[in-house]
Amino acid sequence: AGTYDVGAQMQALAAEGGPSFLRQAASLFALSLGRRKVRPEEYYTYALWREDRGRAFLRDFISNRRMREFNASLQMPDRGIATAVLNDKLATEALLTGRGLPHTRTQAVFAPGAARVPKLPGLTVLQDAEAIAAYLAEAAHLPVFGKPRADSFARGAAAIPGLAGPGALRFLSGEAVPVRGLAEEIARDWASGYLFQPFYRLAPELGPHVGGAMASVRIVTLATEAGIEPWYGVIRLPAATAMHDGDADGERIWGLIDLATGELVRLRSLRNPKAGDLTHGNNPDLPLLGLRLPHWAQAIEITRAGHESFPGHGIIGWDVFLTPEGALLNEANVTPGHVYQVAAQRPLLNPDLRPAYARALAFARKHGGGKSRF
Questions:
Q1: Does pTM top 0.90 for this prediction?
Q2: Closest CA to 328 of 308, 305, 297, 298
Q3: How far apart (Å, rounded) are the C-alpha atoms in residues 130 and 119?
Q4: Which of 101, 237, 267, 296 has the most C-beta neighbours closer than 10 Å?
């Protein structure tokens, strides 16, 4: 699902009245050079072929190849860098729950050999494939959501609602898989660790718009002289048949959130910019645009408080679950991909967002960071 057929996109765009095949090829080559470093996929995802995507748009646009440098420039070595903790989902959970912040709860972890495991209440440690299989075969442990301890883009993640019969599990996608085979695959592919958490559900205001999978909210926060500032918020709907909101077959919709109110003010298809603004999510009978997200004030507050736990990091991308019981921190991303640019159809450093970035950059420069300016 993470692959991209550039040739098919070129042909489709030309056939629909867009730039010719040769003109697209020339633009792709030019945009891949110099400081912009735009990949072919981004040329289509962000509709960079459109006439209104001129020099000002490209000047303020942050491509994926520049994202890591952009995020790293806001780190502050003088205040302590905690990348190892942030890249370890279990270590992040232990730190944040220890500070009393609401966080998704890991029930069991695959931790082979001498892997270090933080102390968390009720945590079961599974050391081999046999232990994983025994854990998953127990109906009392289901439903469950599994994900790697230290990876991104939802690679290896799976929602498991329950058993599909003797020795078999049922994925949220409907596929039945053997318990033993899945356990062996996890042990083989994720030697760095694998987590099993409750299969969290969306708040009732959101569930009918999304379906069975969780739609997480990405809130990006910045550290400035004035404290922690929320920078933008985006909700990511999973594809209708997917088990999570990461890369998957099918249409994925991202929605821009008004930070002050929690209202969804724009909806866009991730892979089809030609579709224009949308009004509905995964439910064609129920408009989603204009909905005010539940527990929004709490979501903002816990991301602020969470960021204070990592003073050396000038920017953090938080994944938040909006559940019936309230907002929960799920993951903290040290180098977030800026999903804002799809949801808003604007470059990241536009006139509305650039002032907060400038404040974060000035603060980083006071503490050993800010080596690059964008």
A1: yes
A2: 298
A3: 23
A4: 237
